[in-house]
Amino acid sequence: MVLQKMSTFYQDIVSNRKKRFALLIDPDKHSKASLSHLISLVNVTPPDILLVGGSLLFNPIEDTIIYLKEHVSIPVFIFPGDVSQLSDKADGIFLLSLISGRNAEFLIGNHVIAAPRLKQSGIEVIPTAYMLIENGHSTSVEYMSNTKPIPYGKTDLAVATALAGELLGLKLIYLEAGSGAAKSVGLDMINEIQKAVNVPVVVGGGIRSVEDAEKTFDAGADLIVIGTALEEYPEQLKEFANLRNRLNSTSPLRG
Ligand code: 1GP
């Protein structure tokens, strides 16, 4: 029997509740040259984790994961858009339960398909409560998952959903406005959810600047996820890393 790897990244984030950021890499959005440039920057000012995935991928995820594992020393996790995005070459996976939706395939169906392979791989699995939050426009993840997001201002619904995720045993609450969102998750909603749950809160979608990132951290996010902004301006990586370092050197730690 293959034993699931001890949850090392997760252990780290719960035992040391500092601010962290993830760089999301969508394999379809990079050429070999752009990826290699981004990786050279990652090795100078590293984020805390690389996430790899997308709502719909034309290119196999594994090639990108192998390339990243050869070139970086930070954890490389899968952030799967669907069940085809699996690889035992990654360090781990955010196993997403789309609890804002009511589509059984994304609540349990795909997990049943993926489970034997995940068990066999032994990679770290982090059960994640994935919540889509409306941002004013329809997003790829909404379309592909055939689910409705939680309305933007409905903080009570979002808090109740996050609590349900925690009570079901999910280990991260991930608030997702959608890649390239014009409006990221509302600060009040992040703050209320962070106060309501004990597990770490992840926020992604539409975080474009260091100012956006700082407000999101201040509202209570433990981990923020940045994709588009660093596809467009990879040099901004350094600014996000400086922000994280500054916040961790000045804020009292939570948890
Ligand atoms: C991850 O979908 C986000 O949660 C990434 O969004 O591409 O807008 O940074 P951006």
Fold blueprint:
Blueprint: H1 8-15, E1 20-25, H2 32-42, E2 49-52, H3 61-71, E3 76-78, E4 92-98, H4 104-121, E5 124-132, H5 140-145, H6 155-167, E6 172-176, H7 187-196, E7 201-204, H8 210-219, E8 223-226, H9 228-232, H10 237-250
Parallel strand pairs: 1-2, 1-8, 2-3, 3-4, 4-5, 5-6, 6-7, 7-8
The chain binds SN-glycerol-1-phosphate (1GP).
Provide keyphrases for this structure:
255 residues, alpha/beta, single chain, binds SN-glycerol-1-phosphate, TIM Barrel
Can you offer a commentary on this structure?
The structure is a single chain. The protein has 255 residues and is an alpha/beta fold. The protein has one domain: FMN-linked oxidoreductases (TIM Barrel). Helix content is 42%, strand content 16%. The protein has helices at 8-15, 32-42, 61-71, 104-121, 140-145, 155-167, 187-196, 210-219, 228-232, 237-250, and strands spanning 20-25, 49-52, 76-78, 92-98, 124-132, 172-176, 201-204, 223-226. It has an eight-stranded parallel beta barrel, surrounded by seven helices. Bound molecules: SN-glycerol-1-phosphate. Residues 24, 176, 178-181, 204-207, 225-229 line the site of SN-glycerol-1-phosphate. SN-glycerol-1-phosphate is lined by residues 24, 176, 178-181, 204-207, 225-229.
